[in-house]
Amino acid sequence: MQKLIEGIHQFQEENFRPLQGLFEKLSRGQNPETLFITCSDSRIDPNLLTQSQPGDLFILRNAGNIVPSHGAPYGGEVATIEFAVGGLYVKDIIICGHSHCGAMKGLLQPEMIANLPALSSWLSHAETTRKIVKDNYGHLEGDRLVTATVEENVLVQLENLRTLPFVASRLVKGDLHLHGWVYKIETGEVFAYDYASGQFVPLAQYKPSENTSRRRTSTI
Fold it and tell me: Does the pTM of the predicted model rise above 0.85?
């Protein structure tokens, strides 16, 4: 805790002043262009990763970067997405998974989280991910299996996003775009799902597309 308190003092004394004008502007309202949905994992810092400033990203975090599909009981996730899409009118939504994801390991090995009933229940929103991996990636194990699960989960959660009526409506209008990313913690690399090739590619090779119907073809 002391480290955090010292950090607050440093922020106020060294970091806030150069950005004071920005914070004064933000005190009158926010206008982020991107909703960034990612995992709660402490090793991910969306603003550091994207080198964005306060006010640039509207951020939603939870275990496994999960989006409950339409019809699930309303919760904080759907309310946050609804506000971003219908209230702030963001232009882009990014779902960003990451390497070594504990939630995805728990999805693959339910016995690991048997004593965490709330988490076990929460991961039911990723049951489609588990089924896809079980039926299509039986030849993988270890880190390669976790990586495939992380990637498939990003795609599943993008599909869940599309079931939300307020997201679907904006997609039809063509003024909202969805993106699937995976962050590799140990290298700092980011891979984006390319709809044209059906694969995750290095971000530098990513060409955003309005085609959101194509699924990946596994080459792992």
Answer: yes
